[in-house]
Amino acid sequence: MLWAAELLVLLAQDAASPYGWRRDGSGVFPGATPPVEWGEKKNVKWRTAVGGGHSSPVIAGDRVLVLAEPGTLWCLDRAKGDVVWKAAVGEDLPEDVKKLVRDLPPGLKERARATPVTDGASVWVSLTTGVVARYTMKGTRAWVMHVDPAPLSYGPSASLVLSGGTLLVDSTRLRAHESSSGKPLWRVAAAEPHYGTPALLTLDGTPMAVTAKGAVVRLSDGAVLARDVAEGLGGDQAPTPLIDGDVAYFAYRRCSAVKLSLKEGKVRAEKLWEQELPGDVISSPVLKDGMLFVVPSNVNEFRILDSKTGKALVEKELDLEQNFYPSLALAGGVLFLGNDKGVTVVLEPGRVYKELRRNELPEGSGASPVFHGPNAFLRGGEHLYCVGP
Predict the structure, then answer these.
(1) How many helices (H) and strands (E) are present in the chain, helices listed first?
(2) How far is residue 275 from each of residues 185, 197, 302, measured CA to CA in Å?
(3) What is the DSSP string of 203-272?
(4) Beta partners for 243?
(5) Under a CB-based contact definition with an 8 Å cutoff, are residues 193 and 236 in contact?
(6) What is the largest CA-CA distance in the chain?
(7) Rounded CA gap, 252 and 371, in Å?
(8) d(Cα 275, Cα 375) in Å, to the nearest integer?
(9) Domains with residue ranges and CATH for the chain
(10) Tens-digit pLDDT string for the chain (389 aa)
(11) Residue 335, CB half-sphere, CA atoms under 13 Å: how many?
């Protein structure tokens, strides 16, 4: 158990950092102490109808922000779930932006896939139509622009990433904009679009982004310092890489660990290990105490791998209906593994499979859970749930 002083430090760090996809991309929520048991009528503090969507909620102080279909950004009171404001992101656009926005391609009906990112003072949001906007925490739109949507098989889904004053946006290629104004900074021809969100990495004091396709891009100018640092990442569907110091973990049809180093302006990639997986991974993995937790999306084969060697510590067939689209999460010292049908399995994160609870909400979602303090925030159908004591 954390001492009070340690808990305050963790909460202060969390509040000072951008909050976006999987909090900071890791899926780890320090200081959170959520319940391990819930249901439609158990430990639900509030439930607010916001509409469906695969986008995960984000936390900004006493507010929760969530993007829902058909492109509405909701700001809710974190304690009560009351609607503070909402904004129709794709409507009332300036003429120069409106003329660039095309209808969704055939077969694509979703706009609310990407998770917003916030620094506590503003929130940035994007739609699958290519609309990108910044809002103040009072709900006023500060700017809006349009980028060409990533031409992926099932449409764009990579989330925005905020690093200092730089906003990373996935388009036909990775690009960066000034977060305060939306002004373009650079566009990288070599960084292909992907479903997975880029992860942030710092080597020798140099901030970089690692894409799901295995490109390493310098944030200051968009220079590509390495390409294809990992194999077996699929056509365009690999999830977000996981960064631990100077090691990047990738998972798709195979899982790999790659040590990255910077020398003379180039990034060197050293493959530490590689491990075949039983199926394609959509859910981003999570790392704890030398263990990498991975679950493929379309087969019931949960894996715990040794993060140093790649050796399989646990291979467990799950008695759980597919698909496993929500990403794994770690909060309160336990692991949360969910499917898109509303079932969440709570596991003890050790070198054996130990299931603590199974929880179910009446409707599912492909969105990943978020944790803050004693609460968990989960999407279910048209609703956002706050679970807590």
Answers:
(1) 2, 33
(2) 38, 22, 14
(3) ETTEEEEE-TTS-EEETTT--EEE---SS--TTTT----EEETTEEEEESSEEEEEEEEEETTEEEEEEE
(4) 248
(5) yes
(6) 59
(7) 26
(8) 35
(9) 36-47+282-389 (2.40.128.630), 200-276 (2.40.10)
(10) 333 433 443 444 344 589 999 999 999 999 999 999 999 889 999 999 999 999 999 999 999 999 999 999 999 999 999 999 999 999 999 999 999 998 887 778 899 999 999 999 999 999 999 999 999 999 999 999 999 998 887 888 899 999 999 999 999 999 999 999 999 999 998 777 888 999 999 999 999 999 998 999 999 999 999 998 987 776 667 789 999 999 999 998 889 999 999 998 899 999 999 999 888 888 999 999 999 999 988 788 899 999 999 999 999 999 888 888 899 999 999 999 999 999 999 999 999 999 999 999 989 999 999 999 999 999 999 999 999 99
(11) 26
DSSP assignment, residue 352?
A: S
Chain segment 270-282, per-residue pLDDT in tens: 999 999 988 888 8
Encoding tokens for residue 148? 């060409």
Instruction: Locate 305 and state its tokens.
Output: 């791998």
How far is it, in rounded angstroms, from Cα 154 to Cα 168? 21
Residue 100: CB atoms within 10 Å: 15
Q: In which residue are the tokens 């998972």 written?
A: 251
Classified as helix, coil or strand, 12 is: helix
